[in-house]
Amino acid sequence: MGGPGAGWVAAGLLLGAGACYCIYRLTRGRRRGDRELGMRPSKSAEDLTDGSYDDVLNAAQLQKLLYLLESTEDPVIIERALITLGNNAAFSVNQAIIRELGGIPIVGNKINHSNQSIKEKALNALNNLSVNVENQIKIKVQVLKLLLNLSENPAMTEGLLHAQVDSSFLSLYDSHVAKEILLRVLTLFQNINNCLKIEGHLAVQPTFTEGSLFFLLHGEECAQKIKALVDHHDAEVKEKVLTIIPKI
């Protein structure tokens, strides 16, 4: 797959695939809420990102860093904050602290940033955070948001479909999966099909390797899972499926 964004697209997909099993458990009713801790601005927050602070950050310092990351629009500061967070997320104790501070969505939001380097630093931080099993639940959710955004762009379709994805990704199309997840993965399928039509790739399909997202979404197993959802108890899910089935 070509284009400057191909690397981080693939990285995001591979990161997401590794967390599929945790989503599976989440959608069977296991939900955990983050503790909302108030964050106040601090004049010393930027000092934590200048590269001269070598110690592992404590909870209060991580709180300041997350506030800085959430409040600033300066790309240089954002990138430095993500690097510092990524480095600290390599320590198991901080993986839990960052989650409890509500840091995963803050970092996850940066994977949609227009700056390529910021995207990469955010994915690196999420990758380190994903070592923690509890964190994996929230990080799949973040990657799904990324995939949905990318799937709306015809220019990114081929890159998405070439990316290698674990077959466990298809578990997200099971009927017991939470409504919000089902609607997202069904929309992902729909968006990709629409983009393929726009780009004319349905008539002349490029070569996709086995194990790619294309093979998963256009294989018989995925088709059967989507068709089975026509009997889903939720009306919104059922309506979405009925718009997709004629295209399978």
Q: Helix coverage percent of residues? A: 55-70%
Please give the largest β-sheet: none
* Count of all domains: 2
Question: From the alpha-carbon coordinates, what is the Rg to the nearest angstrom?
Answer: 19 Å
Q: Show unreliable segments.
A: 1-8, 20-43
The number of helical runs is 13
Give the helix/strand class: mainly alpha
H/E topology pattern: HHHHHHHHHHHHH
- Could you report the average pLDDT, rounded to the nearest whole number? 78
Strand content: under 5%
Overall geometric form: elongated
Number of strands: 0
N-to-C CA distance: 24 Å
Keywords summarizing the entry:
Leucine-rich Repeat Variant, 248 residues, single chain, elongated, mainly alpha, 2 domains, 13 helices
What does this structure look like?
The protein is 59% helix and 0% strand. It is mainly alpha-helical and 248 residues long. The chain folds into 2 domains: 55-131, Leucine-rich Repeat Variant; 133-247. α1 packs parallel to α7 and α8 packs parallel to α10 (179-199). The longest helix is centred in the C-terminal third of the chain and has 21 residues, at 179-199. It is elongated and about 60 Å long. The chain starts with 5 loop residues before the first helix and ends with a helix. It is found in: Endoplasmic reticulum membrane; Mitochondrion outer membrane. One of its GO terms (cellular component) is mitochondrial outer membrane. It comes from Macaca fascicularis (Crab-eating macaque). The chain crosses the membrane at residues 6-24. Residues 57-141 form the Armadillo repeat-containing domain.
